[in-house]
């Protein structure tokens, strides 16, 4: 079997798995499980299903994501990005229709993995990913307003964003002060603990405090018990949903939407984990693992599963060394569910909405958003259009429009670059040999436009080529155009290599390319800019890198 289709679990076992690694994975798994417990229930409730379905997804789906996935540190489970899609699917087709759509999405992801489509998902331009993530965050926050304010609504609130806000505004006078107070206390505790005690499980502590306050003061607020009757003490037996050809056809659009978003979310999360650890995930195996996880989750009554960026980052920071941390996270969640199920009935829904409000805020990549707005008018347009379409139309339209605008912008910019810098000049430069006799210096030349379409291929090469070097020169003299996606790839390369005490030099960057890089905070101090390749080679000899503290 090709290496790209071997789960990381197998690779870890082949390396040799020690007791000390198991201890580290157990600690990180427990840490993530504590974070995932309230979050999984909150996401399920916001998606229009009972909280146990979120826990089923985290336990069963999360286990298979780690067991069969292509990342060492990925944590799978229900994600806030799916809230709107799942809620709409349940409303249209019921629970059985949702479970069928989740299973079909799993089959689609498995097929995508075997067809080697994993790398192509990373072709999505950086402004599109930032825009749709921000758009989803806005929708999640809007979906929690009625619970945060404890509004007394006579009927079901509308799904579309504009209609929802207008409808909720009509009933602002029915605000439940007790529910609002619990939500604000939950948010305040999470934010405060993140600043003063970042290692503590802020979400769980905040929900516990809100639950105790609600019970002790007998506050008139909705709880999991009053709304759903509590949680089961364990998993339900696996079962197939009621299938029919008509139902399968009806849920196909939902299945493709789940598969697309799940693929994007999981691979972005794996890339984040790679950036934090210096490891490299197997994108196609990751898709296969995610596909199996979704099928398994649906069999046990769970909702959609994907790689979750926040929980994966928590896993890395907690000291995880292998996929066993993710499997242990699922085991700990199952123990929590069995032991603490009777206590869950006292959790106020307003507290869980407060948790999701914080999640929505952290989902927005605020620094990246500001950078893209400043970097160029084209990137800003793609970002804003994607965000607005996701919020006011739907996710698929936002992504398609963002891709189309990215392609048009690329064609326009390349046309202008060709007019100023004929391609013949670049071809002549590309044929010049690179002369390097220093074994501690690695040189990589990028030729042609470095845009979102080339990001996956170039990024993969950049990650590998600097292994074992002390100096890493990236020759950009043949690059007529660099977009924000290419700049983001280079930013990730700089972060990884400098963490390993490797000095990075950029050679021959044109004013446009350097301006784009500096707008993404890749400036002098992080890297060394040189006018030519020869000057960069000379700089490595004149000023050898000093060893950095790690």
Report on this structure.
It is found in: Membrane. Its main location: membrane. Residues 431-540 form the STAS domain. With 550 residues, the chain is mainly α. It has three domains: 22-359, no CATH class; 363-420, no CATH class; 427-542, Transcription Regulator spoIIAA (2-Layer Sandwich), CATH 3.30.750. It is 66% helix and 5% strand. The strands form two sheets. It has a four-stranded parallel beta sheet with strand order 3-4-5-6, sandwiched between helices. Helix 22 links the parallel strand 4 (471-478) and strand 5 (503-507). Helix 2 crosses helix 10 and helix 2 runs antiparallel to helix 14 (309-317). The longest helix is centred in the middle third of the chain and has 33 residues, at 245-277. It is globular and about 75 Å long. The model is unreliable at 418-433 (pLDDT under 50).
Short description:
66% of the residues lie in helices and 5% in strands.
Features:
single chain, 550 residues, mainly alpha, Transcription Regulator spoIIAA, 3 domains
Provide the low-confidence segments as ranges: 418-433
Q: Count the strands?
A: 6
What is the end-to-end distance? 38 Å
Strand order of the main beta sheet, please? Answer: 3-4-5-6
Helix content: 55-70%
Organism: Martelella endophytica
Keywords: Membrane, Transmembrane, Transmembrane helix
Subcellular location: Membrane
Domain STAS: 431-540
């Amino acid at each position: 079997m090709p290496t790209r289709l071997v789960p990381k679990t197998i690779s870890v076992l082949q390396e040799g798995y020690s007791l000390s690694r198991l201890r580290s994975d157990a600690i990180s798994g427990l840490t993530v499980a504590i974070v995932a417990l309230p979050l999984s229930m909150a996401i399920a409730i916001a998606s229009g299903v009972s909280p146990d379905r979120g826990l089923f997804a985290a336990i069963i789906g999360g286990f298979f994501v780690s067991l069969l996935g292509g990342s060492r540190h990925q944590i799978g489970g229900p994600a806030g990005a799916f809230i709107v899609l799942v809620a709409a699917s349940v409303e249209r087709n019921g629970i059985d229709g949702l479970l069928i759509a989740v299973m079909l999405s799993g089959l689609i992801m498995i097929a995508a993995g075997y067809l080697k489509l994993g790398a192509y998902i990373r072709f999505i331009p950086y402004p599109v990913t930032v825009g749709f993530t921000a758009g989803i965050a806005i929708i999640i926050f809007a979906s929690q307003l009625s619970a945060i304010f404890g509004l007394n609504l006579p009927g079901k609130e509308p799904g579309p964003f504009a209609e929802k806000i207008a409808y909720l505004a009509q009933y602002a006078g029915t605000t439940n002060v007790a529910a609002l107070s619990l939500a604000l206390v939950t948010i305040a505790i999470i934010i405060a603990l993140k600043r003063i005690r970042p290692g503590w499980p802020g979400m769980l502590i905040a929900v516990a405090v809100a639950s105790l306050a609600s019970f002790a003061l007998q506050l008139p607020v909705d709880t999991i018990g009053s709304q759903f009757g509590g949680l089961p003490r364990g998993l339900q037996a696996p079962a197939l949903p009621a299938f029919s050809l008509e139902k399968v056809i009806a849920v196909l659009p939902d299945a493709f939407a789940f598969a697309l978003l799940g693929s994007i979310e999981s691979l972005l999360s794996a890339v984040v984990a790679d950036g934090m650890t210096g490891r490299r995930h197997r994108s196609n195996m990751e898709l296969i693992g995610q596909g199996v996880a979704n099928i398994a989750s649906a069999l046990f009554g769970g909702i959609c599963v994907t790689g979750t960026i926040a929980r994966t980052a928590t896993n890395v920071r907690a000291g995880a060394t292998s996929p066993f941390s993710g499997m242990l996270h699922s085991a700990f969640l199952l123990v929590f569910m069995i032991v603490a199920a009777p206590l869950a009935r006292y959790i106020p829904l307003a507290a869980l909405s407060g948790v999701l409000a914080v999640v929505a805020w952290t989902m927005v990549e605020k620094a990246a958003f500001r950078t893209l707005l400043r970097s160029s008018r084209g990137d800003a347009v793609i970002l804003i259009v994607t965000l607005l379409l996701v919020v006011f139309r739907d996710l698929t339209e936002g992504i398609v429009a963002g891709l189309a605008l990215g392609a048009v912008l690329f064609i326009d910019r390349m046309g202008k670059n060709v007019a100023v810098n004929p391609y013949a000049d670049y071809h002549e430069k590309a044929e010049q040999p690179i002369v390097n006799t220093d074994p501690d210096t690695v040189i990589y030349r990028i030729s042609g436009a470095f845009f979102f379409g080339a990001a996956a291929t170039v990024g993969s090469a950049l990650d590998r080529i600097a292994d074992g070097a002390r100096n890493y020169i990236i020759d950009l003299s043949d690059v007529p155009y660099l977009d924000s996606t290419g700049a983001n790839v280079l930013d990730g390369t700089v972060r990884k290599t400098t963490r390993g005490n490797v000095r990075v030099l950029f050679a021959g960057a044109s004013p446009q390319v350097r301006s784009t890089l500096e707008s993404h905070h890749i400036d002098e101090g992080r890297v060394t800019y040189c006018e030519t390749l020869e000057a960069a080679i000379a700089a490595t000899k004149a000023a050898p890198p000093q060893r950095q503290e790690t």
